[in-house]
């Protein structure tokens, strides 16, 4: 059962997982740092507790820890309870959601294993914005995408902002990396995937017609602004697009992902 521990000293060394989150070079979830996962808010912490990521500790105000009582019954970790003022001093800013949890990372699946058990995958290139990345993971969870593969230039899905924007769904959607790029996409083709590159260029086909009758689809999505590189488009089986009204050529990448995920998952499973 969770160990509830009252904290009245912001310098308490037991709070190291949560300290100075506004200081870039000391953040525990930064790439190359301690590699922790941080969940913020009751809903996201609940999803962390239900995920394969090993929880280390919680920090929150009394009422937020109490709101998690049912989920914490079977968790043997410390839950540090303190005031909002002390919590803000530890974290480095006022945390409106009132609770944080830290966890160690879980092993990523091998790309081939993820491909073997999936029908629909998102493959990302150059999605470096944490909020876009978090939104894409949330969309993937909502629309039945089986997993996400990360190419070069993508930010870390387990960075705190991505976890928060995804509403914790990054913790339930499996992801891995594609290496080398783009030659590693061959793993998808070997597992029966048709690889569709989302691009507004003139020779692309309508996504809906392109994926009709296809058994497994990997959807390539590029960065906000420049989109996919020519190298990635060439490595795909075909370029596809979302038809637009006149005068508009593209959508925000997370919005485009949501539309594309819906079209692909409906094509694969119309009763979904």
From TrEMBL:
It comes from Crossiella cryophila. This is tRNA G18 (Ribose-2'-O)-methylase SpoU. It comes from the Bacteria. GO terms for molecular function: RNA binding; RNA methyltransferase activity. Residues 122-262 form the tRNA/rRNA methyltransferase SpoU type domain. Pfam families: SpoU_methylase. Keywords: Methyltransferase, Transferase. The lineage of its organism: Bacteria, Bacillati, Actinomycetota, Actinomycetes, Pseudonocardiales. GO terms for biological process: methylation; RNA processing.
């Amino acid at each position: 059962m969770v160990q509830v521990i009252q904290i009245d000293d912001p310098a308490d060394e037991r709070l190291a997982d949560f300290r100075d989150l506004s200081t870039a070079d000391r953040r525990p979830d930064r790439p190359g740092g301690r590699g922790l996962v941080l969940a913020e808010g009751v809903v996201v912490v609940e999803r962390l507790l239900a995920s394969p990521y090993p929880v280390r500790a919680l920090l929150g105000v009394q009422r937020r820890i109490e709101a998690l009582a049912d989920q914490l019954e079977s968790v043997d970790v410390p839950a540090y309870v303190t005031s909002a003022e002390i919590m803000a001093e530890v974290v480095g800013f006022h945390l409106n959601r009132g609770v944080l949890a830290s966890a160690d990372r879980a092993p990523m699946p091998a790309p081939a294993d993820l491909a073997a058990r999936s029908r629909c995958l998102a493959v990302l290139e150059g999605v470096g914005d944490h909020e876009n990345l978090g939104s894409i993971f949330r969309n993937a969870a909502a629309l039945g995408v089986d997993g996400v593969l990360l190419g070069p230039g993508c930010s870390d899905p387990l960075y705190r902002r991505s976890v928060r924007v995804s509403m914790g769904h990054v913790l339930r959607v499996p992801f891995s990396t594609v290496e080398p790029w783009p030659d590693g996409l061959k793993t998808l083709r070997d597992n029966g995937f048709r690889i569709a590159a989302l691009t507004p260029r003139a020779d692309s086909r309508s996504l809906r017609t392109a994926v009709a009758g296809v058994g497994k689809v990997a959807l390539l999505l590029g960065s906000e602004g420049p989109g996919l590189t020519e190298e990635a488009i060439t490595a795909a089986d075909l370029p596809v697009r979302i038809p637009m009204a006149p005068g508009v050529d593209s959508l925000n990448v997370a919005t485009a992902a949501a539309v594309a995920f819906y079209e692909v998952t409906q094509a694969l499973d119309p009763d979904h």
